[in-house]
Amino acid sequence: MSRPLARFFSSSSRSLSLLGPIPSSSSSCSNPSKSASVKLAPLRYHIFKEPLPYPVGLKLQNDIIDKRLEAKAKDPMGSRGIGDVVLLLEHTPTYTTGRRDNSPNPNELHPEEKKVQNVGAEFYITKRGGQVTYHGPGQLVGYPILDLNVMETSTRCYVEYLQRMLGDYVRQTSGLGETITAPHPDGHVGVFSSPTEKVSSIGIHLRHRITSHGFAMNITPEPIKWFDLVMACGLADVHAISLHDLITRSAISNGVIPTLPSVANVAEDLVPKFGELFGREIISLHDEGGEGAVEEVMQIRELVKKAEEEAKEENAKSGGWATEPDLSKRG
Questions:
Q1: Which end of the chain is less packed: N or C, by CB atoms within 10 Å?
Q2: What pTM does this model have?
Q3: What are the chain's domains?
Protein backbone atom coordinates (compact mmCIF):
# COMPACT_ATOMS: atom_id res chain seq x y z
CA MET A 1 0.00 0.00 0.00
CA SER A 2 1.56 3.31 -1.02
CA ARG A 3 1.06 6.68 0.57
CA PRO A 4 2.83 10.04 0.44
CA LEU A 5 5.99 10.32 2.49
CA ALA A 6 7.22 13.51 4.13
CA ARG A 7 10.67 13.82 2.57
CA PHE A 8 13.29 15.54 4.66
CA PHE A 9 16.71 16.91 3.83
CA SER A 10 19.03 15.74 1.11
CA SER A 11 21.56 12.98 1.71
CA SER A 12 24.29 15.58 2.14
CA SER A 13 22.75 16.79 5.39
CA ARG A 14 23.43 15.30 8.78
CA SER A 15 20.60 13.64 10.65
CA LEU A 16 20.86 13.00 14.37
CA SER A 17 18.75 10.65 16.43
CA LEU A 18 18.74 12.10 19.91
CA LEU A 19 16.37 9.72 21.61
CA GLY A 20 19.18 7.90 23.42
CA PRO A 21 22.13 9.21 25.43
CA ILE A 22 23.99 12.23 24.10
CA PRO A 23 27.36 11.14 22.65
CA SER A 24 30.07 11.53 25.25
CA SER A 25 32.76 14.16 24.89
CA SER A 26 35.79 15.14 26.88
CA SER A 27 34.84 18.82 26.71
CA SER A 28 32.20 20.38 28.92
CA CYS A 29 29.45 22.69 27.73
CA SER A 30 30.04 26.07 29.34
CA ASN A 31 27.56 28.92 29.51
CA PRO A 32 26.13 29.11 25.96
CA SER A 33 25.83 32.88 26.15
CA LYS A 34 29.63 33.06 26.15
CA SER A 35 30.25 30.67 23.27
CA ALA A 36 30.47 33.12 20.36
CA SER A 37 33.49 35.38 19.97
CA VAL A 38 31.56 37.98 17.95
CA LYS A 39 28.40 39.91 18.79
CA LEU A 40 25.50 38.09 17.19
CA ALA A 41 22.39 39.60 15.65
CA PRO A 42 19.15 39.47 17.66
CA LEU A 43 17.46 36.08 17.81
CA ARG A 44 13.99 36.26 16.31
CA TYR A 45 10.88 34.28 17.19
CA HIS A 46 7.40 33.66 15.84
CA ILE A 47 4.43 32.06 17.62
CA PHE A 48 1.87 30.55 15.24
CA LYS A 49 -1.79 31.04 16.10
CA GLU A 50 -3.05 28.37 13.68
CA PRO A 51 -2.06 24.67 14.10
CA LEU A 52 0.21 23.67 11.22
CA PRO A 53 -0.27 20.47 9.22
CA TYR A 54 3.03 18.62 9.52
CA PRO A 55 4.03 18.90 5.82
CA VAL A 56 3.52 22.68 5.97
CA GLY A 57 5.84 22.98 8.96
CA LEU A 58 8.39 20.67 7.36
CA LYS A 59 8.42 22.63 4.11
CA LEU A 60 8.72 25.90 6.01
CA GLN A 61 11.86 24.70 7.77
CA ASN A 62 13.38 23.48 4.50
CA ASP A 63 12.57 26.73 2.72
CA ILE A 64 14.04 28.89 5.50
CA ILE A 65 17.26 26.88 5.48
CA ASP A 66 17.46 27.16 1.68
CA LYS A 67 17.24 30.96 1.95
CA ARG A 68 19.80 31.03 4.74
CA LEU A 69 22.26 28.95 2.74
CA GLU A 70 21.79 31.24 -0.26
CA ALA A 71 22.60 34.23 1.95
CA LYS A 72 25.69 32.51 3.37
CA ALA A 73 26.92 31.68 -0.12
CA LYS A 74 26.73 35.37 -1.06
CA ASP A 75 28.41 36.61 2.11
CA PRO A 76 30.02 33.82 4.19
CA MET A 77 31.43 36.23 6.79
CA GLY A 78 28.52 38.63 7.08
CA SER A 79 25.81 36.58 8.73
CA ARG A 80 26.25 36.98 12.50
CA GLY A 81 23.16 34.78 12.80
CA ILE A 82 20.85 37.36 11.23
CA GLY A 83 18.47 34.64 10.05
CA ASP A 84 18.37 32.76 13.35
CA VAL A 85 14.72 32.22 14.27
CA VAL A 86 12.70 30.14 16.75
CA LEU A 87 9.32 28.91 15.50
CA LEU A 88 6.81 27.96 18.21
CA LEU A 89 3.64 26.14 17.19
CA GLU A 90 1.19 23.27 17.45
CA HIS A 91 0.68 20.66 14.73
CA THR A 92 -2.55 19.02 13.65
CA PRO A 93 -2.64 15.32 14.75
CA THR A 94 0.39 13.61 13.25
CA TYR A 95 2.65 10.64 13.85
CA THR A 96 6.16 10.75 12.44
CA THR A 97 9.06 8.35 12.37
CA GLY A 98 12.64 8.54 11.14
CA ARG A 99 14.30 6.66 8.30
CA ARG A 100 16.68 3.99 9.62
CA ASP A 101 18.79 1.34 7.91
CA ASN A 102 16.26 -1.28 8.99
CA SER A 103 13.23 0.82 8.03
CA PRO A 104 10.49 -1.08 6.21
CA ASN A 105 9.81 -0.94 2.51
CA PRO A 106 8.44 2.58 1.83
CA ASN A 107 5.59 1.02 -0.14
CA GLU A 108 4.45 -0.98 2.89
CA LEU A 109 2.94 0.22 6.13
CA HIS A 110 5.42 0.94 8.90
CA PRO A 111 4.83 -1.46 11.86
CA GLU A 112 3.83 1.43 14.13
CA GLU A 113 1.64 2.91 11.40
CA LYS A 114 -0.44 -0.26 11.41
CA LYS A 115 -1.41 0.53 15.00
CA VAL A 116 -2.85 3.95 14.13
CA GLN A 117 -4.60 3.42 10.81
CA ASN A 118 -7.80 5.51 10.55
CA VAL A 119 -7.64 6.91 14.09
CA GLY A 120 -7.68 10.52 12.86
CA ALA A 121 -3.98 11.35 12.56
CA GLU A 122 -1.61 11.44 9.60
CA PHE A 123 1.55 9.30 9.54
CA TYR A 124 4.78 10.45 7.88
CA ILE A 125 8.17 8.86 7.39
CA THR A 126 10.80 11.60 7.57
CA LYS A 127 14.53 11.93 6.95
CA ARG A 128 15.25 12.70 10.60
CA GLY A 129 16.80 10.18 12.93
CA GLY A 130 14.80 8.49 15.63
CA GLN A 131 11.64 6.49 15.98
CA VAL A 132 7.91 7.13 16.26
CA THR A 133 6.53 10.18 18.04
CA TYR A 134 3.30 12.16 18.04
CA HIS A 135 2.59 15.85 17.45
CA GLY A 136 -0.79 17.52 17.84
CA PRO A 137 -2.92 20.13 19.62
CA GLY A 138 -2.08 20.48 23.28
CA GLN A 139 1.61 20.03 22.57
CA LEU A 140 4.07 22.88 22.06
CA VAL A 141 6.59 22.27 19.29
CA GLY A 142 9.71 24.41 18.98
CA TYR A 143 11.76 24.61 15.80
CA PRO A 144 14.90 26.69 16.42
CA ILE A 145 16.63 27.32 13.09
CA LEU A 146 20.09 28.40 14.20
CA ASP A 147 23.54 28.61 12.62
CA LEU A 148 25.72 26.71 15.08
CA ASN A 149 28.87 27.81 13.25
CA VAL A 150 28.38 31.51 13.93
CA MET A 151 27.28 30.65 17.47
CA GLU A 152 30.51 28.64 17.87
CA THR A 153 28.46 25.89 19.51
CA SER A 154 28.91 22.14 19.14
CA THR A 155 25.97 19.91 18.33
CA ARG A 156 26.30 18.10 21.65
CA CYS A 157 26.29 21.34 23.62
CA TYR A 158 23.34 22.72 21.66
CA VAL A 159 21.26 19.69 22.64
CA GLU A 160 22.40 19.99 26.26
CA TYR A 161 21.42 23.68 26.29
CA LEU A 162 17.91 22.92 25.01
CA GLN A 163 17.52 20.09 27.48
CA ARG A 164 18.71 22.28 30.36
CA MET A 165 16.30 25.09 29.47
CA LEU A 166 13.30 22.78 29.13
CA GLY A 167 14.15 20.86 32.28
CA ASP A 168 14.49 24.05 34.30
CA TYR A 169 11.17 25.32 32.97
CA VAL A 170 9.29 22.13 33.87
CA ARG A 171 10.88 22.05 37.33
CA GLN A 172 9.84 25.62 38.02
CA THR A 173 6.38 25.49 36.46
CA SER A 174 5.33 22.11 37.82
CA GLY A 175 6.61 22.81 41.32
CA LEU A 176 8.15 19.33 41.41
CA GLY A 177 11.73 20.55 41.57
CA GLU A 178 14.48 17.96 41.42
CA THR A 179 12.07 15.08 40.80
CA ILE A 180 12.19 16.33 37.19
CA THR A 181 15.24 14.92 35.40
CA ALA A 182 16.78 16.03 32.12
CA PRO A 183 18.09 13.72 30.75
CA HIS A 184 16.60 10.40 31.88
CA PRO A 185 18.57 8.58 34.62
CA ASP A 186 19.68 6.16 31.88
CA GLY A 187 20.84 9.04 29.70
CA HIS A 188 17.93 9.24 27.25
CA VAL A 189 17.51 12.77 25.94
CA GLY A 190 14.42 14.67 27.06
CA VAL A 191 12.63 15.80 30.21
CA PHE A 192 11.25 13.13 32.53
CA SER A 193 9.13 13.35 35.68
CA SER A 194 10.08 9.80 36.66
CA PRO A 195 11.97 6.95 35.00
CA THR A 196 8.68 5.97 33.32
CA GLU A 197 7.16 9.40 32.50
CA LYS A 198 8.28 11.75 29.73
CA VAL A 199 6.95 15.28 29.28
CA SER A 200 9.31 16.68 26.63
CA SER A 201 11.34 15.28 23.73
CA ILE A 202 14.28 16.64 21.78
CA GLY A 203 15.35 15.65 18.29
CA ILE A 204 17.31 17.80 15.88
CA HIS A 205 18.51 17.78 12.29
CA LEU A 206 21.53 19.59 10.87
CA ARG A 207 22.08 20.86 7.38
CA HIS A 208 25.42 22.57 6.87
CA ARG A 209 25.45 23.28 10.61
CA ILE A 210 22.04 24.97 10.54
CA THR A 211 19.59 23.31 12.92
CA SER A 212 16.00 22.31 12.32
CA HIS A 213 13.39 20.32 14.23
CA GLY A 214 13.97 20.83 17.95
CA PHE A 215 11.67 19.92 20.82
CA ALA A 216 8.12 19.03 21.77
CA MET A 217 6.47 19.43 25.19
CA ASN A 218 3.08 18.05 26.16
CA ILE A 219 1.19 20.91 27.81
CA THR A 220 -2.40 19.63 28.11
CA PRO A 221 -3.44 15.96 28.47
CA GLU A 222 -4.85 15.94 24.92
CA PRO A 223 -1.77 14.32 23.29
CA ILE A 224 -1.54 11.47 25.81
CA LYS A 225 -4.25 9.21 24.32
CA TRP A 226 -2.50 9.48 20.95
CA PHE A 227 0.88 8.59 22.45
CA ASP A 228 -0.62 5.56 24.18
CA LEU A 229 -1.30 3.91 20.80
CA VAL A 230 2.39 3.61 19.86
CA MET A 231 5.75 2.86 21.45
CA ALA A 232 7.01 6.43 21.38
CA CYS A 233 10.74 6.96 20.84
CA GLY A 234 11.31 3.23 21.10
CA LEU A 235 11.09 3.37 24.91
CA ALA A 236 8.79 0.51 25.90
CA ASP A 237 8.72 1.32 29.61
CA VAL A 238 8.17 5.07 29.27
CA HIS A 239 4.80 6.74 28.68
CA ALA A 240 3.88 10.34 27.91
CA ILE A 241 2.65 12.77 30.54
CA SER A 242 1.61 16.42 30.30
CA LEU A 243 2.70 19.56 32.11
CA HIS A 244 -0.90 19.94 33.34
CA ASP A 245 -0.67 16.48 34.93
CA LEU A 246 2.53 17.45 36.73
CA ILE A 247 1.20 20.81 37.92
CA THR A 248 -1.97 19.14 39.22
CA ARG A 249 0.07 16.45 40.98
CA SER A 250 2.15 19.08 42.75
CA ALA A 251 -0.89 21.21 43.63
CA ILE A 252 -2.75 18.28 45.18
CA SER A 253 0.24 17.34 47.31
CA ASN A 254 0.46 20.95 48.52
CA GLY A 255 -3.28 21.42 49.01
CA VAL A 256 -3.65 24.25 46.51
CA ILE A 257 -5.74 24.85 43.38
CA PRO A 258 -3.60 24.36 40.25
CA THR A 259 -3.11 27.13 37.70
CA LEU A 260 -2.87 25.47 34.30
CA PRO A 261 -1.16 27.34 31.43
CA SER A 262 -2.30 27.16 27.83
CA VAL A 263 0.06 26.16 25.02
CA ALA A 264 0.26 29.85 24.07
CA ASN A 265 1.15 30.75 27.67
CA VAL A 266 4.06 28.31 27.65
CA ALA A 267 5.27 29.56 24.26
CA GLU A 268 5.31 33.11 25.60
CA ASP A 269 7.11 31.95 28.75
CA LEU A 270 9.86 30.27 26.74
CA VAL A 271 10.58 33.20 24.41
CA PRO A 272 12.73 35.20 26.87
CA LYS A 273 14.40 32.00 28.05
CA PHE A 274 15.84 31.49 24.57
CA GLY A 275 17.39 34.94 24.77
CA GLU A 276 18.81 34.21 28.22
CA LEU A 277 20.04 30.80 27.12
CA PHE A 278 22.07 32.08 24.19
CA GLY A 279 22.92 35.51 25.57
CA ARG A 280 21.19 37.34 22.72
CA GLU A 281 18.54 39.96 22.38
CA ILE A 282 15.32 38.23 21.32
CA ILE A 283 12.74 40.05 19.23
CA SER A 284 9.69 39.19 17.16
CA LEU A 285 10.28 38.11 13.59
CA HIS A 286 8.15 41.08 12.58
CA ASP A 287 9.96 43.62 14.76
CA GLU A 288 11.67 46.29 12.66
CA GLY A 289 14.43 46.66 15.24
CA GLY A 290 17.79 44.95 15.06
CA GLU A 291 18.42 43.78 11.49
CA GLY A 292 14.84 44.33 10.41
CA ALA A 293 15.55 45.61 6.90
CA VAL A 294 17.91 42.79 5.92
CA GLU A 295 16.70 40.78 2.93
CA GLU A 296 17.22 37.45 4.72
CA VAL A 297 14.81 38.43 7.50
CA MET A 298 12.25 39.73 5.03
CA GLN A 299 12.36 36.45 3.11
CA ILE A 300 11.74 34.46 6.30
CA ARG A 301 8.76 36.69 7.09
CA GLU A 302 7.27 35.93 3.69
CA LEU A 303 7.80 32.19 4.11
CA VAL A 304 6.12 32.25 7.53
CA LYS A 305 3.20 34.26 6.15
CA LYS A 306 2.77 31.75 3.33
CA ALA A 307 2.84 28.82 5.78
CA GLU A 308 0.19 30.48 7.93
CA GLU A 309 -2.05 31.01 4.92
CA GLU A 310 -1.61 27.39 3.81
CA ALA A 311 -2.39 26.13 7.32
CA LYS A 312 -5.53 28.23 7.55
CA GLU A 313 -6.72 27.03 4.15
CA GLU A 314 -6.00 23.34 4.84
CA ASN A 315 -7.60 23.44 8.28
CA ALA A 316 -10.72 25.07 6.81
CA LYS A 317 -10.94 22.38 4.12
CA SER A 318 -10.57 19.58 6.66
CA GLY A 319 -13.32 20.97 8.89
CA GLY A 320 -11.11 20.73 11.96
CA TRP A 321 -9.20 17.85 13.50
CA ALA A 322 -9.88 15.02 15.90
CA THR A 323 -9.43 15.87 19.57
CA GLU A 324 -8.86 12.23 20.48
CA PRO A 325 -8.18 9.05 18.48
CA ASP A 326 -11.18 7.32 16.93
CA LEU A 327 -10.61 3.73 18.01
CA SER A 328 -13.81 2.51 16.32
CA LYS A 329 -12.08 2.69 12.92
CA ARG A 330 -8.65 1.59 14.06
CA GLY A 331 -6.90 -0.69 11.58
A1: N
A2: 0.89
A3: 14-19+39-310 (3.30.930.10)
